[in-house]
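To the team - N-(5'-phosphopyridoxyl)-D-alanine complex, inputs and output below.
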Amino acid sequence: MSRIAYVSGAYVPHRQAAVHIEDRGYQFADGVYEVIAVRGGTLLDEEPHLQRLHRSLKELRIPAPMSDTALGIVLREIVRRNNINAGIVYLQVTRGVAPRDHAFPRSATPTLVVTARASRRPDPRQWEGGIGVVTIPDIRWRRCDIKSIALVANVLGKQQAREAGVFEAWQVDGQGWITEGTSTNAWIVTNEATVVTRAADNAILNGVTRLALLDIIAREGCRLDERPFTVEEAKTAREAFLTSTTSDVLPVVRIDGAPVGDGKPGPLSRQLRAAYLAHAASPA
Ligand code: PDD
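Output:
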C-alpha cells in the first residue's frame, strides 16, 4: 500500500508530497510540530497535543491553519488512508511561503503537512534491560517550551548519543541542572522514593507523556517533586527514566557510563511504565 501525506489541502502520494523552496519552515525553521502516537488505530492523548500545538502557534504568532474539528478529520483521515494501527502521526505547521525576509510576511497562508507511519517494533531489550544516556551541554535557545521545528541542537545531541552507543543525551544548563533529553523528558527517583522531574518552565518541552505520567503518579499515590536536578544527583539516584510519545517510559540504567542504582530498571520505573502502557491501551 502506498503512503499518503496531507499537504495544505490535498492528500498526495508520500513520494510526491512537497512544499515550496521559499516555505519559511525550510528557510527559517519558522514553524511548529507535534508527534501523536496511534494505538489501536486511534490517536493517543489528541487533546493535550492539540492544546500544546495551539500554545506553540500562539507563542510564534502563527495563525491556526484550520479549526480543530477540521484538523481532527485530517489526522484521522491520514491514519485511515495509511492503514496505521500502531504508529505515529507527524504534523507540522509553518508560517507559509513568502519571499525570504526575516520579518513576518504581510500575508502568508500557514503550510500544514501531516504524515503517518507505522511504528518500528520497539526493542524489548530497551525496557527489559534499560538504556544509557550521556550528558551534554544544553546549547539550545531559551524557549524550549515551544515545540519548534528548529531542532539542530537536538539533532547534534542525539547524534552524540548515537556515537557514544547510548539511547539519549541529557542536556545540562549553565547552572549544572539537567533540562531534558534531545527528544524526551528526564526523571529520577531519589533514595527516599520521590519521583523528581523539572517543572515545565521555558527550558523544557512540556511532554504530553510527562503530563499523562504526572496524573498517573498522583493516582498511584507516589511522592513527586517538580524541581531541577543535577547530573551528580541523577548519578546517585535510586532510579532514572525518560518519557516521550515514541519511547513511553524507558528506564535509564547508565549515565555517562556509570550505573544508576544497581544498573537495572528499578521497581518504580517498571510500575510507572506498566501504568502508562495501561493508559495508552485505554486512555481514561
Ligand atoms: N519529541 N522533549 C523534547 C525536546 C521533545 O522533542 C519531546 C518529544 C519530548 C517529549 O514530549 P512528548 O511526551 O509530548 O512526546 C520532550 C518527539 C516525540 C519528537 O520530536 O519526535
